[in-house]
Amino acid sequence: MSGNEKNTEQLILDAARKVFVEKDFDGARMQEIADIAGINKALLHYYYRSKDQLFEAVFRESFNTFSPRIFEIMSSPIELSQKIKLFIDSYIDIILENPHIPAFVLHELNRNPARIKDLLPFTEKTIGGLLSALSQEIKSAGFVEISPEQLMINMIGLCIFPFIGRPIIQPILFGNDDDRFDEFIQSRKTEVTKFILNALTKK
Amino acid sequence: MSGNEKNTEQLILDAARKVFVEKDFDGARMQEIADIAGINKALLHYYYRSKDQLFEAVFRESFNTFSPRIFEIMSSPIELSQKIKLFIDSYIDIILENPHIPAFVLHELNRNPARIKDLLPFTEKTIGGLLSALSQEIKSAGFVEISPEQLMINMIGLCIFPFIGRPIIQPILFGNDDDRFDEFIQSRKTEVTKFILNALTKK
DNA sequence: TTTTAAATTAACCATATAGTTAAACCGAAA
DNA sequence: TTTCGGTTTAACTATATGGTTAATTTAAAA
């Protein structure tokens, strides 16, 4: 047969990702997922028992798009200022490749905060180690006093927020022009890095 | 009659706010809103024709909790560093009083970006004026070169992100402990202000 | 070619849900 | 006391939706 040669399970997952990310769990319709996948609705249940389990598969995948890279970069053995630069660059790049995933993941976790437990691959010890290492690096670099937690949240927030806030930022600040918003994001990589490094530098 | 003396319309709006903010439009049930308001479901339709219109009322109210204050503060005629300090303090305070509203509003706008048009009370001119004034103030203050758009997004993002990201931040960074998270937010007012002002200062 | 198990579908079911309707209630005006 | 308009309710409707079932198709093994 010609044309569509992908296996059905993947077709379903792709369609489900599209619909769930766009409409969230409650707004998504199994029928729409089936239509987009080009299959019968019963097949969804044949491969993934229920809407819940199909959503679970999509959500896991989305969550894992982001979390591993953060820890990988932050635990690499390079100089802190370089590390920050690399982090911001990579993080904005990842989001650019999946611009709707952060809002999707955060919304689902707000809807169901308990879910986070099943998703964290990091033990408390890993986190603790990473944070105290970061704390040490801040000192050795001669940077301003700041808790590693505050710094991490600042870095991540400055990267993610423009994407989550896009539907309000773009109309207000950029006359709802896609190109101007994209420019803004592009310059953001260097701007945020500068901003953070300067914020960390003593006078 | 004793006890409950509020007018029905307000009872409905309060219940609707609670349910919509917690579950979003698609997840909310008219029956649950009626139950919480302690009335018959038909009354919801008597006062607000449809689920859409009830949601609209809640959403408008939520949106207006935030936007006016931002512009008020940013256009007040005080020194920029003071203005930033005041902005961060007030903004975090407003969010603390309505911690779930930012996620609610942003999620709804992501679901339906066109809606923003009906909500913006600011003309493009007002925005333009505010931004160019801010740009001027950055220069006169002898601050680092930064576009007013980048600065605004940084300020707002640093305030809002911890709240939107709470279900992932609190378990990862604070062992899922409410008190430790609250401490973190409290210290954030001064920490974010310091961070931004230092980021703006030439070395 | 026949058999068999997996894949796929059309038709169906049970239920949840937004919205409607007609009747009852209630307090104030006449 | 009666009337009347606004308020509230119980009961109902139409439809959308997640999920099921039994039958059909497909493709590979025997």
List the helices and strands and how they pair.
The structure is a homodimer of 203-residue chains.
Chain A lengths: L7 H20 L2 H8 L3 H7 L3 H24 L5 H18 L3 H11 L12 H17 L7 H17 L1 H9 L3 H23 L3
Helix pairs in contact in A: 1-2, 1-4, 1-6, 2-3, 4-5, 4-6, 5-8, 5-10, 8-10
The first copy, chain A, binds a DNA duplex (30 and 30 nucleotides) through helix 3.
Tell me what the structure shows.
The structure is a homodimer of 203-residue chains. By secondary structure, chain A is mainly alpha-helical. The first copy, chain A, is built from 10 helices and no strands. In chain A, helix 1 (8-27) crosses helix 4 (51-74), helix 4 packs across helix 6 (101-111) and helix 8 (148-164) runs antiparallel to helix 10 (178-200). The radius of gyration of chain A is 20 Å and the shape is globular. Mean pLDDT of chain A is 94; it is low at 1-5. Chains A and B meet through helix 1, helix 6, helix 7, helix 8 and helix 9 of A and helix 1, helix 6, helix 7, helix 8 and helix 9 of B. The first copy, chain A, binds a DNA duplex (30 and 30 nucleotides) through residues 8, 29-31, 39-46, 49-51.
